[in-house]
Specification:
This protein folds into two domains: 1-53, Orthogonal Bundle (Arc Repressor Mutant, subunit A); 63-193, Tetracycline Repressor, domain 2. The relative contact order is 0.11. Helices cover 75% and strands 0% of the residues. The longest helix is centred in the C-terminal third of the chain and has 25 residues, at 119-143. Residues 1-9 have low confidence and may be disordered. The chain is mostly helical. It has helices at 7-27, 34-41, 45-51, 55-77, 84-94, 103-115, 119-143, 151-171, 178-193. It has nine helices and no strands.
Length: 194
């Protein structure tokens, strides 16, 4: 169903989601309150509550907001124009945070942690994980057609590796820098390619 709110409200909603992403990236979900979000956005508490009636609704909107931003990263990369092996290498790099302070990665991590106790966020995470795994399996098969029967398990393994590396980059960048994470991921991909 189309969003029938006026553009001004939709723009305000977008700005609220941007400020929410900032807040989650800086303080985590537990540090976010309606009052803090209203102050960050320069609006009244009532405006926040008009756009998001519950914290759950706010967090679900945040999930969709960062998912959209991640999709924009993929769109800008123009993966389809690359040869299969480079497509696979580029995709794995896109799934890693470019820096330890990357807002998108920090919000993703906070929401994934929330998924352990929130069935709605968990359902969104499972759906996103399946879609990403499907994409990886297709790209793996495209890069090594003779290994198609292994591509699903390898996609699961690679995505788990990338998730772990992303968490390490965000939480312990002195041990796992973004560069080290990319090197590890590239080495694993090159093993697949042969």
């Amino acid at each position: 169903m189309a969003d029938r709110r006026p553009v001004e409200t939709t723009d305000r909603r977008y700005q609220l989601l941007e400020r929410l992403a900032d807040a989650i990236a800086e303080t985590g979900i537990e540090g976010v309150s309606i009052r803090d979000l209203a102050a960050r956005a320069g609006v009244s508490i009532g405006t926040v509550q008009y756009n998001f009636s519950t914290k759950t609704e706010l967090l679900l909107a945040a999930w969709h907001h960062v998912r959209h931003q991640a999709a924009l990263r993929f769109t800008r990369s123009d993966l389809a124009a690359l040869p299969p092996n480079e497509q696979l290498l580029s995709l794995t790099e896109l799934l890693l945070p470019p820096t330890a302070e990357d807002r998108l990665a920090r919000v993703w991590l906070a929401l994934v942690a929330r998924a352990a106790h929130d069935p709605q966020i968990a359902a969104l995470h499972r759906e996103q994980w399946r879609e990403t795994e499907d994409l990886l399996a297709r790209v793996l098969t495209h890069a090594a057609p003779a290994r198609e029967d292994e591509s699903r398990d390898t996609a699961t393994e690679l995505l788990a590796l990338l998730d772990g590396l992303a968490i390490s980059v965000i939480t312990e960048p002195d041990r796992v820098s973004p560069e080290r994470a990319r090197r590890i991921a590239r080495n694993r991909v090159r093993q697949w390619i042969g």
